[in-house]
Amino acid sequence: MSNEELQNKIIENVKDKIAIYELEKENRNDKFSMKKFRNVAAVAVLTIGLSIGTAYGANIIYEKIWKEPTKIVGGQTEEITEESIKGNITEDEAREIAKNKLNKIGIDGGELSKTRNYKDSYSEGIEYIFTTDDGKWEITINGMSKEFESLKSCEYNKNYEKYTMTRDEAIEVAKQYYEQFGYKEGEYEFAEIVKLWNSNPDEDKSGYYSARFYKKYGDLYNKCEAIWIGFYAKDHKLSDYSVSNRKYDNNPLEITKEQAIELAIEADKKVEERTIIETKAEQNIKAMNGTAYSRLKDTDAFYKPMMEVDVPNEDIVYYKTEERVRRVWVVGLTYGDTENTGIVNKVARGQFTYYVDATTGEIIGGSTSDEIYWENFHFNENKINR
Fold it and tell me: Residue 205 CA to chain centroid, in angstroms?
């Protein structure tokens, strides 16, 4: 189905739904007029005409959410300036938050006098990174959200690698840390326990585990609202602890799986001429990103760092989007003519994954990997109730 045909199909659906809504009002108060219907329908058609990605509800026209991203050339970090620090708390304020967090989980950080600050090009937040006075821990506070982000041990002893624990033992240790850190039962769902050291895949044990807890909405996890707790088998010593708190818009499902696939294929025609041999789609919750947009606008620059080595910073292009988390259809496309193009090209360009907003139908992100396959593979391997 062409772009125009798909747009017309959505328009007709909107007309039907608005007509039903107006007729229901007529039955209630007998004030329906064809002139009023034509005006309402015309507004709906005009709204949809602005973008094929606009969706419809029973009596709602959803506004587009995608905004033009900001182009970034060069590295992913940027210098902290008086302008970029606006909206962030000060270093001293961040230090107090860090001290309070350490005290809460039973670590004496001292005065946290040693610090280094960091800002990446994708976020407005300054990351204030403090080292405890004894040099054992590093704690990060986000200056924009004013929240704790991560804690990691600065100590490592190779002797730890001699020790292992079973998966079931690791699950119990993770639950103890979750409770110790002040989280309530049901606040997050314990979803994954991941072995992070190379070990015999046939053995259900490791020397280092990472426990993943996520907020859950219906059947979907928001992995952007997450707690990660890493620890060693040796004495169950904490290795790292991080929190992500990017709120989910909880947007409604209005686009069908079939529509999402069609929208992704239509978007892909603007980039690729190769034959698509497989399509698949699953609902998920994802953070908006500039990957699909970058691939469309700067295709050669987008793939260059994946295909070549030592690419200069000035040749690397990124696109910064709003920091929103949405219900999407993750749509995977696999191309059919990559067998004889070399392993690097096949891995980098053999497939593409689109994030199709489940409410508006807009393309709001993507990935160069077969994301559905890999996420399911790893999750099925690591999930708690496997």
Answer: 29
